[in-house]
Specification:
Elements lengths: L1 H22 L4 H24 L2 E4 L12 E3 L11 E8 L1 E4 L2 E4 L1 E7 L1
Helix pairs in contact: 1-2
């Protein structure tokens, strides 16, 4: 049952991120209205997951380190000497308490 809840949480997170991208193309009045709805949804999701001791971790804009609990699907595009940053989370890191439940999936870029 825990795996199904985590799967549903990840898909909800993905839908929320996709919706945020769509909102960016709207006029400012619509953006404010729709952003409030997405924030409400995200808060609700986070609160429900918190009661189950599950946390979705978004590392966007963080400095990338090879030891992070993420798979960088475009790592082969970069040499190991550059300063890299996580430019987009495709799938969040999932924590259950202090334990890593699932690694995230990211795109990285130059800092």
């Amino acid at each position: 049952m825990k795996n199904q809840i985590i799967d549903l949480a990840i898909e909800s997170w993905r839908l929320s991120k996709f919706t945020e991208e769509l909102i960016e193309d709207r006029d400012i009045t619509d953006q404010e209205k729709f952003n409030r709805k997405v924030l409400w949804f995200n808060d609700k999701l986070e609160n429900i997951l918190e009661t189950l001791n599950i946390k979705l971790v978004n590392l966007e804009d963080s400095k990338f380190d090879i030891g992070m609990p993420v798979k960088a699907i475009n790592i082969e595009e970069f040499k190991g000497t550059e300063e890299l940053v996580i430019t987009k989370m495709l799938e969040p890191v999932v924590m259950c308490g202090d334990l890593l439940e699932r690694s995230g999936t990211v795109l990285i870029g130059l800092n």
